[in-house]
Amino acid sequence: MNEPGFGLAACQHCGQRIEFPQEGAGTAVACPSCEQATVLQDISAPVTEATEMTESAGITAGELKAALAGTVQPPRISVFYQLGLLLVAMFMVLLPVVYLAFVALLAYATYWYGDHARVMLEGFTGGIHVFIIKVILYLGPLIGGTIAVFFMFKPILARPRRTAEPEEMNPARQARLYQFIAHLCDMLQVPMPRRIYLDSQLNASAGFRRGLGGLLGNDRVLTLGLPLVAGLNTRQLAAVVAHELGHCTQGMAMRLGYVIDRIDGWFVRVVYARDSWDVAFEEWADSINDWRLSLIVVCARLAIWASRRILAMLLWVGHAASCFLSRQMEYHADACAVAVAGSAGLESLLLRLREQSVLQNLAFRSLNESWKKRRQLPDSLPEYLRQLESRMPPDFHEQAQQTLLNETSGWFATHPTPAQRIQKARQQAAEGVFVMEQPAGWLFQDFAGTARVATEQYYRQDLQLPVTEPMLRPVADFFPDRDGAK
């Protein structure tokens, strides 16, 4: 909800939120993000009776402080685990070195062939036709190898696609949520995150904000997904936040994990990602009909394919090791969640996450159809998921939980299965110190309005959809009434 005397506008080009004094409504200004001219039009939702009722039913500061008055002892990380993480990090750092060495070897092999195969061009023995074949045999591997070296070298300079930064929360407007997170930080003896973001993912995460700058300091951020929060109670949300803060207690392990994840992600892009250069090469190669030029194409494709297969093998060896250690990190973070919310709190969270995941998959299939046919989307994803759940069959929750219990994991799973995590939590048999079970949305000021802002940003910046205000429809428009009428 906006401060008195201030409005909230959205850039008509990029969707960036702009806060402005209300007397400036109707003024054309330059967007601070895309620098395009946009007219300030207040889009902040008026306070409705439903909103006032929700806020009056919220959680007071005293209630929250009393519920979070306990203390916990954060679990320690074993020396053997940290040593294993260090070894994996060293191995992952060596992978780019191996990659550069392989590119250099391919370049040298191309040079060596060009230097030693020149003997084929000496003399005209066999006539002009034989000489042309020799030229093709000489130039084919030489040009093909050069192309392969280029396509192996270009990912070194490639940067990942920039993604939009999620909405940052203002502690003055979300005081209760910040109080909630601050108490949990005190419990687990970790610094308060420098920034707390909201997005529209069914997930939460904690990490470093500014790459290596944050890695060397304490510039940690916490990101919460609004659809996730909307479907949880406060005890389950406490387990989520404690789990993410648990990663922050891991100190050096978290930093090494950050390095491993970045290198792992870079190698995935190197081996599997394709850009416009790759597409252009394949289009050119497919258009070749001359058998003489086909030799160049075959040599280039063979070199690129072989190099990527070798690198893929190296990648998967490192990825398997890093995933094993990632699963151990998740168990440690779960122990922090259990210490705060109890074994029952973590178990109920994992069961609820599976239900929300099933709902989201159903919702996205339906919304994709709606966008293709009518160019319409709901103005609030959390509310859409809530309405969808209310219309599910009675056995929905039981079926969703059954899929959770039957899930298995492999070598390349970054998380243990929910069943494994539940079993581990039950073994700890912890009561926890926070057992309040109120709707998690009560921790927010105007949760409905916040959800609408995050949903619109998600459509425009994450999904890159050209959404305009008329395309965002009330959630009720997407569901028939109980009697079947629209």
Estimate nothing, just give the exact number of structural domains.
2
Determine the structural class based on helices, strands and strand pairing: alpha/beta
Mean pLDDT: 78
Sequence of strands across the biggest β-sheet: 5-6-8-7
In DSSP terms (H or I, runs of 4 or more residues), the helix count works out at: 15
* Overall spatial form: globular
Low-confidence stretches: 45-56
Helix content estimate: 55-70%
Would you count the extended β strands for me?
10
Strand content: 5-15%
Order of helices and strands: EEEEHHHHEHEEHEHHHHHEHHHHE
- Main sheet overview: 4 strands, mixed
Radius of gyration: 28 Å
Distance between the termini: 31 Å
Give a concise summary:
This protein is 59% helix and 8% strand. The chain is an alpha/beta fold.
Structural commentary:
This protein has 486 residues and is an alpha/beta fold. The chain folds into two domains: 1-44, no CATH class; 59-486, no CATH class. 59% of the residues lie in helices and 8% in strands. It has helices spanning 49-56, 61-67, 79-116, 128-157, 175-188, 212-216, 226-230, 234-248, 252-272, 276-287, 291-374, 381-390, 396-405, 418-428, 447-462, and strands at residues 6-10, 17-21, 28-30, 37-39, 167-168, 195-199, 204-208, 220-225, 377-378, 472-473. It has a four-stranded mixed β-sheet. The chain has a two-stranded antiparallel sheet with strand order 1-2. It has a two-stranded antiparallel ribbon with strand order 3-4. α3 packs antiparallel against α4 and α3 crosses α11. The protein is globular, with a radius of gyration of 28 Å. The two termini are 31 Å apart. Mean pLDDT is 78; it is low at 45-56.
